[in-house]
């Protein structure tokens, strides 16, 4: 059973059409993609970064990629680092641990999106629990990320 999150409310309040995809319990974004039988490049994951002033940035990229901090630091003229896991739990206290929705707006943080996701017909993302993904078509995904900056900052991981 899924629980209501700020992400759910955000989708509803902004009239963003989506579908829920239920899958077996998973412990990571790559495992979620496997459980839901989707390609990892179609599953968006969120990585929360913090700068030297304590401001957060949600980096949204494909599940089979890792964040290139030097690209983001150059682009934003900042010094971002990964947020500690215990701090993630506090920021996303309405979600299951480890099931962070890759969207910053409902959590009052700026976002940057890897351009690769904007080129897909459909994007999936964690909903805030370990058994449900949100499926968005290209138009809905672009509506969700709004006026966020989009650039290439992910480098593909090989498994």
TrEMBL record:
Entry-linked InterPro entries: YbaK/aa-tRNA-synt-asso_dom_sf (IPR036754), YbaK/aa-tRNA-synth-assoc-dom (IPR007214)
Sequence ranges assigned to domain YbaK/aminoacyl-tRNA synthetase-associated in this UniProt record: 33-140
Any GO molecular function: aminoacyl-tRNA deacylase activity
Gene3D superfamilies reported in the protein's UniProt record: YbaK/aminoacyl-tRNA synthetase-associated domain (3.90.960.10)
CDD domains found in the cross-reference section: YbaK_like (cd04332)
Superkingdom to which the source organism belongs: Bacteria
Protein name: YbaK/aminoacyl-tRNA synthetase-associated domain-containing protein
Organism this protein belongs to: Vibrio furnissii
